[in-house]
Amino acid sequence: MTFLVDLARIGADSAGTVGGKAVALARMKQSGVLVPDAVCVTSNAYGVFVAEAGLSERILMELERKPFSEMRWEEVWDAALRIRNLFLTAPWPAALHEALSDGLAAFVGDGPLVVRSSCPEEDSAGASFAGLHESYVNVRGLGPTLEHIKRVWASLWSDGALLYRREQGEAAHFGTMAVLVQRLVTGEASGVAFSRSPQAASEGVVEAVYGLNQGLVDGTIEPDHWRLDRATGRVLEHRAPECRAACLGVGNTGVRTVLLPDAKASRPPLAPEEVADLFAVACRMESLFGAPQDMEWTLAGGRVHALQSRPITTLDSREASDRQAWYKGLHRSYDNLCRMRENIETRLLPEMTETAEELARVSLEALTNLDLAHEIRRRLEINERWVGVYWSEFIPYAHGIRLFGQVYNDAVKPDDPFEFTLLLTHTPLVGMARNRCLGALASLIREHPDWNGGAGFHGDSLPPEVEAAVSAFIEDYGELSWAGATGASNLSPRQALVSLLLEMAAHPPVSEAMVGDTSHLEERFLASFPLEDGEYARGVLALGRSSYRLRDDDNIYMGRLEAELFRGVEEGRRRLDLKGPGTDVEPLREELEHFGRRPTIQSASALGAGGASAAKARQIMGQPAGQGLARGKARVIRRPGDLADLKYGEILVCDVVDPTMTHVVPLAAGIVERRGGMLIHGAIIAREYGLPCVTGVSDATARIDTGDYLTVDGYLGIVTLGEAGAMFEESP
Question: What region holds the Pyruvate phosphate dikinase AMP/ATP-binding domain (predicted)?
């Protein structure tokens, strides 16, 4: 069985064992195009590794916890991370390790290499998979080369690759991978050349950056862009980037950002004749392969080195192009995330806070009906603007957690692929600070002389000092947006808050999870990097913690703005109820009709409001998201107002725990969610309190009814219905 093959020995019929990328490079080399020297680790090696390490069955188990078509992206990412860790921690089969070591030793030497994917489906006319499998630049030495071959194999099972295969109608759990090991050509400039523009059939495109190509590919560095006439090669337009401040260069390992001297920063990386030469090479590739090509290149010593060439698969499908770009965008670069962090923490969050405070200062009662109508419209527009920011900035920034998780696992190779979350738990969260304030309010009520086990307190008549504390809480954190403001409960937001506090006061205080000293984990992580990469290691840890914090806090900030919108709406509704029909309230009536109702949880009909099916499953599989075992009666949340009925010690069963709902989590004994993922809000808060949590339970709110007796196994991701769950010991 062949495990290694030189580029010069690859034929057109070898794609099944060496992949499309290797076949294309071999053909280019054989036709006289200058390409880097390379050897290919065949898919035979991948097959032996997977078989002897017993990975096939474990991959299948990860992808069949529930129908793959029903898995949300967060669930796919969790599965992909676990699969990746299987590859990283599995030992090399002795014979395969010996064969690859002997075959690669002479080629590897001491020089820098690129280790990149070349699976059979890659770079085909039907599906390019461009950017969905991993490539690693500036790998040095035999040991690191073998390690990075594993990482490339694992990228066959990345979230982006799995979702793209699903989109292409391919089976998610089938696949194989070859790996190219190329010599790294360090050029003065690098880029891409399209023999035909994806946007205009009569044009070609050349893009270039100084230094290595990686900065252009991952979006770290904006390129110079040239549009050319396909027929004549004449430049139609040159578009310079906003700033040419930096490029990517070779470090001791990996790549690093290098500041450009002023002389380079002020001029394009390519001269006009070099643009023409590159476009000519791209056109030559089109003639060679018989289809328009997307060619990656680097310019070294005045010579064009073709790094790879693939057919442009998106000429007739803008939708397909957009989807693939989304899958590629699932993983953002460290530099990109650092820029997002600065923008979010120094500009967006302070602006949100200032806006909420400005809205809170408006005396709505003093406004005329017409002015109140305008104020409601203004508040709605403010909310809509920030919802846009939430999706464009806050949601993508969550990738900082995932970047840290991958970097941690690559460096440490822990047995538990989610060990990295221990370094994130107890990062200061606004939601947890708010819940501590709730706990303090509950203690104030519990310790009050008039409490008497609850008999002396009523929601409509609280002692002055408790009323003042409740008002201060609402001023700091807003009201319960799932309560009366949505029109889904008979309780006003304030009444719902007081009801929650009385329920909390009737039971012992809830403690947050006790997490042991994790300093040794942090030290082990930082020590796994060479000295020169220490700043990066500390930076990616800080980025992970910041992203983790915002993953929960962003909805708290949004909740404050939403609470102010609802305050305006409630004032408008109050006036309509008082005055009835009349011309002076018509603008107000029209504005409230425009606002409509905006439930924060999926409608009951969509979640199976009719109750659980008659034939209930004895056990329901999900994903483990918070360790522990818990038993109790289910409280199923099918509409926002159901949250007001949650009692101490019940199992919270819902579609998703929104951060504005986490007020009630301290009452719960465990959490079951339909939406899956280790890093969704409910899972984060569950871990903060040490609650067993199972996510990704299909049709959870339809298969379980309020009052059902549940056992939640947060270790295995299993929810058991019925008293038989008593065979498990109740979690402490």
Answer: 17-322
